Q: What sequence folds into this?
């Protein structure tokens, strides 16, 4: 029961604020304004960023930010910890890469194929896993993702450990040449913002509120007449679809799809990103993703094994700041509400 | 440290002389920058890792840290065997750091990705770590070179030798993905070419820790040779368990298609004795290689592996070529790499084929028995030298269309 | 040790029948079944540890694979640095690994009990990364070697296969430990306290039983089981820091199939899936790694709580 109060606390500090704003409580419009303020500051920054940072790195960060945000939709707002999201991300990366390289599809269709892959896998996984909760749910998704990993290793089109290489970036909508890093960056940014907006809208829609209600008290939601399983399945499939979108974009950015993307460590990494940034907050997962990606990039040049650092961050997050960076910040900004 | 082998010293001097000859020529950004991108902490770190960086540093030291009138700089990074991380680092190195060459690279997904990038951005990549023949075959690139070894050289070398020694019936235990399939295919072709027969094969998932059931099936086939078309801990587990189940005692022999000295080090001579394998370098081959190994060991604390020696050789040849061209311009250096003879402690009787494959003598070695060994790393009898022409795929057979 | 000739004649007849029916050499089939059972011994030991920890503490111990690796490495280190051999290691290594578990429980895990169980999973995942990463850093990845103890070398020449003594030993140890544990938890007073403490800790504490200590020891014991599996594995599998990483996912699936938290379920499923995997290696070897996950998906569709689990 203390577990519930912890989650309740998360809601209060996190999206719950904006949620209540939608319900019309006056103090809450502040949080919404805050969200807009962040958006107004962040978007121009993202637009000029490639002139100061390496665009490929930024694109990688964007893809992972979307991946983590999609994951958060399920964990932070649905209360379901999937340990198999690598399957959607990586599975989609393979399909998008194959679509662009072998079928010769243009960028937008190849990436769309990725999202469709995420959707399809999400439907299958969801149908099996939704019946269980909590840790069972995590285990089931993990095991299912492992099956996708074996498929990725053995299916003829995936190229085994070589992966799919030299995927053409193509031309966006027949006009914008994506071989130019800047062009690709802005296209990626556009898709990212659109997807992010979709997540934001979902969380604040009536559907999102029912989802949170289910997370807080499933029996009560059932007694109110909600088809709980259907709500959860929709959240799962949406999360998987967006994770697939992120995977597809990443495959095109790096022009490759490899086993790394479907490995179970990837499922762990996205949990870390979400946890570090703040699960159940809108911006948290994106912040966490950027941090982890930066770290990986930086750590590659020094002589410390990367998994050890990642593991240590995990432990510190779980023990000391479970609200994550954004969650802690929000708590600081609104002390009176606690 | 002072034991620079004679051949390399001569090479270095020649390089310097040439370098001064064209002094004042162009070196972009006033520095020749070498990126060593490899696995520093994961599966292949013992084979490559820090040792590869040390190999590159030794080659630079041979040149006195200067080539074509410009200083040489080495940067290194850990690609963690992940193609996306490798690709991100390599892109940044090419776009921002302006590296002139990337060396090292283990794992074929990493090597293929980085070589592809090099082709796109016109940066030379010299791969010493990854094994896939695709690098100089269907995925070959004008800027990409494959230095130390490849799956064909290892598998075909061992396969041919074993058949010639009388092991003419084979059963394969093969790891079930593209790498294993090509390893088995290459070996089976050579076995049949030499008059042997393949009685059967079995696929195992990757990775597997228990091989006993596969080994029993191999035993039931009655083949003289059980070919292990896998690598790393899979191969090691299979060999250990073959001993345990008395398969080697009962008269069948094992042949590892892709094994390195580090595998033998892990297995121990008692378990590994009698195994045949092919290698591109063995430190105890002659005085020159021993001198090189001693110099390496003083820096690293271990003997160099084939990959680490390969990185040394690749950087050495690259620098000689820069000196010859008098510039680090990619096209000029590629021409020079073909013009300058390839010769050092690692590359014997060597040449670079038009598909980027560096062809050199490989060695068929047999693992010593424990009482024949004088200590750690004294593991091999060199049974024969395999000339590069026999060891590597011909350009025609490689399937490469982007020839130089 | 050859079997009496009449018996082996009988086996030959059975063998011929199998050959005709299934199209595979019978010695292969018998051999595979036995081998499968031995692999099942590892699954059973590991999934038992997970089940004990989960059943008593509701923690999914993601560090289990790392602790199995630790068991094997401690065995090796005892010999390499202290000259302590296999038989002593069989006792010492699980204790060391168990103590390591107790330290984790006391310093970290216990702070999470009042939270969602998922945090336990995330914490142990992080610890697994650290432990495996550090060992990789210290010892590289090529692996160490550990010899089979002299008393257990050699083997039995059965009519259908050569059974190494050591494998038989693994099977025996595993069966003894597994069913011993089952007995202790399900049939003794101590086990009854333990189960009661999971159901209602406050009440049990009221009886004057030190519940936190019991939980600590339970975790230590579950981890020690992984340590035992590690010791058993040391002489036959390549000793690398990554040895537990891939095994653990399979073992998770075993636990899910058996029914999370069910002690007997974990044991029986462990052996049964070992057998099933062995058969797969004969009839369709490519699928040997997937078969367990397929079974898992099917079981979950039919019995969401697992074969031996109770719906909560």
A:
């Amino acid at each position: 029961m203390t577990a519930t109060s912890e989650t309740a606390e998360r809601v209060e500090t996190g999206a719950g604020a904006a949620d209540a704003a939608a319900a019309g409580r006056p103090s809450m419009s502040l949080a919404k304004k805050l969200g807009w303020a962040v958006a107004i500051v962040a978007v121009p920054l993202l637009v000029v960023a490639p002139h100061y940072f390496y665009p490929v790195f930024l694109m990688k960060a964007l893809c992972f930010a979307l991946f983590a945000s999609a994951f958060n939709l399920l964990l932070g707002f649905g209360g379901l910890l999937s340990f198999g999201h690598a399957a959607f991300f990586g599975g989609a990366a393979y399909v998008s890469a194959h679509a662009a390289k072998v079928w010769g599809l243009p960028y937008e269709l190849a990436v769309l194929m990725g999202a469709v892959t995420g959707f399809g896998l999400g439907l299958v996984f969801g149908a099996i896993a939704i019946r269980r909760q909590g840790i069972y749910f995590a285990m089931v998704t993990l095991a299912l993702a492992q099956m996708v990993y074996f498929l990725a290793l053995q299916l003829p089109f995936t190229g085994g450990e070589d992966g799919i290489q030299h995927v053409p970036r193509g031309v966006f909508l027949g006009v914008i040449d994506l071989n130019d890093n800047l062009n690709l960056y802005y296209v990626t940014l556009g898709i990212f913002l659109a997807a992010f907006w979709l997540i934001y809208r979902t969380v604040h829609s009536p559907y999102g509120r029912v989802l949170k209600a289910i997370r807080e008290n499933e029996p009560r939601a059932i007694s109110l007449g909600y088809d709980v399983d259907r709500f959860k399945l929709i959240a799962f499939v949406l999360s998987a679809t967006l994770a697939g979108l992120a995977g597809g974009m990443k495959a095109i950015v790096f022009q490759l799809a490899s086993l790394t993307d479907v490995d179970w460590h990837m499922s762990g990494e996205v949990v870390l990103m979400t946890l570090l940034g703040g699960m159940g907050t809108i911006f948290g997962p994106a912040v966490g993703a950027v941090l982890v990606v930066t770290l990986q990039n930086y750590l590659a040049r020094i002589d410390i094994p990367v998994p050890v650092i990642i593991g240590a961050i995990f432990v510190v997050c779980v023990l000391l700041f479970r609200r994550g960076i954004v969650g802690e910040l929000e708590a600081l900004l609104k002390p009176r509400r606690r | 440290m002072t034991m620079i082998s004679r051949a390399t010293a001569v090479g270095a001097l020649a390089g310097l002389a040439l370098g001064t000859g064209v002094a004042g020529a162009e070196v972009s950004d006033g520095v020749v920058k070498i990126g060593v991108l490899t696995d520093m902490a994961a599966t292949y770190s013992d084979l490559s890792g820090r040792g590869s960086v040390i190999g590159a540093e030794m080659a630079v030291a041979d040149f006195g840290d200067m080539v074509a009138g410009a200083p040489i700089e080495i940067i290194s990074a850990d690609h963690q065997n992940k193609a996306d991380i490798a690709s991100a680092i390599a892109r940044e190195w090419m776009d921002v750091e302006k590296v002139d060459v990337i060396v090292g690279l283990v794992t074929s997904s990493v090597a293929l990705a980085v070589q592809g990038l090099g082709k796109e951005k016109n940066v030379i990549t010299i791969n010493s770590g990854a094994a896939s023949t695709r690098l100089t075959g269907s995925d070959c690139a004008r800027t990409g070179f494959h230095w130390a070894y490849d799956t064909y050289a290892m598998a075909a070398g061992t396969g041919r030798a074993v058949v010639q020694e009388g092991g003419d019936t084979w059963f394969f235990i093969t790891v079930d993905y593209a790498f294993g399939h090509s390893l088995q295919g290459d070996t089976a072709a050579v076995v049949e070419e030499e008059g042997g027969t393949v009685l059967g094969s079995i696929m195992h998932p990757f990775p597997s820790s228990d091989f006993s059931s596969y080994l029993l099936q191999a035993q039931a086939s009655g083949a003289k040779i059980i070919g292990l078309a896998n690598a790393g801990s899979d191969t090691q587990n299979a060999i250990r368990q073959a001993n345990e189940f008395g398969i080697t005692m009962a008269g069948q022999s094992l042949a590892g298609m892709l094994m390195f000295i580090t595998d033998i080090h892990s297995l121990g001579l008692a378990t590994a004795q009698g195994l045949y394998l092919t290698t591109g370098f063995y430190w105890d081959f002659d005085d020159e290689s021993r001198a090189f190994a001693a110099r390496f060991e003083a820096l690293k604390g271990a003997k160099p592996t084939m990959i680490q020696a390969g990185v040394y050789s690749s950087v050495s040849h690259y620098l000689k070529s820069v000196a010859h061209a008098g510039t680090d311009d990619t096209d000029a250096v590629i021409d020079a790499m073909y013009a300058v003879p390839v010769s050092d402690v690692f590359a014997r009787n060597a040449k670079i084929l038009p598909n980027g494959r560096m062809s050199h003598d490989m060695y068929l070695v047999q693992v010593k028995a424990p009482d024949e060994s004088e200590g750690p790393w004294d593991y091999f009898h060199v049974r024969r030298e395999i000339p590069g022409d026999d060891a590597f795929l011909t350009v025609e057979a490689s399937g490469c269309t982007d020839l130089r | 040790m050859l079997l009496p000739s009449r018996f082996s004649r009988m086996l030959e007849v059975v063998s011929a029948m199998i050959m005709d029916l299934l199209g595979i050499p019978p010695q292969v089939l018998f051999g595979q079944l036995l081998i499968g059972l031995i692999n099942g011994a590892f699954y059973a030991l590991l999934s038992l540890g997970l089940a004990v920890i989960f059943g008593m503490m509701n923690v999914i111990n993601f560090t289990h694979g790392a602790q199995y690796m630790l068991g094997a490495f401690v065995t090796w280190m005892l010999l390499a640095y202290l000259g302590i051999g296999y038989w002593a290691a069989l006792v010492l290594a699980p204790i060391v690994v168990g103590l390591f578990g107790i330290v984790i429980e006391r310093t970290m895990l216990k702070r999470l009990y009042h939270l969602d169980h998922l945090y336990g999973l995330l914490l142990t995942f992080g610890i697994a990364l650290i432990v495996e990463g550090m060992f990789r850093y210290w010892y590289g990845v090529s692996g160490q070697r550990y010899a089979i103890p002299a008393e257990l070398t050699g083997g039995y020449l059965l009519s259908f296969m050569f059974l190494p003594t050591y494998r038989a030993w693994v099977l025996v140890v595993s069966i003894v430990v597994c069913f011993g544990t089952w007995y202790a938890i399900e049939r003794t007073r101590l086990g009854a306290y333990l189960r009661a403490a999971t159901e209602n800790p406050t009440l049990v504490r009221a009886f004057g039983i030190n519940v936190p200590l019991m939980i600590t020891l339970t975790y230590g014991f579950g981890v020690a089981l992984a340590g035992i599996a590690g010791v058993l594995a040391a002489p036959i599998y390549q000793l690398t820091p990554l040895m537990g990483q891939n095994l653990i996912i399979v073992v998770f699936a075993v636990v899910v199939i058996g029914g999370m938290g069910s002690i007997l379920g974990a044991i029986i499923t462990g052996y049964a899936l070992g057998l099933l995997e062995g058969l797969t290696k004969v009839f369709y070897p490519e699928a040997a790694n997937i078969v367990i996950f397929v079974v898992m998906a099917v079981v979950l569709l039919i019995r969401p709580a697992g074969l031996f689990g109770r719906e909560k």
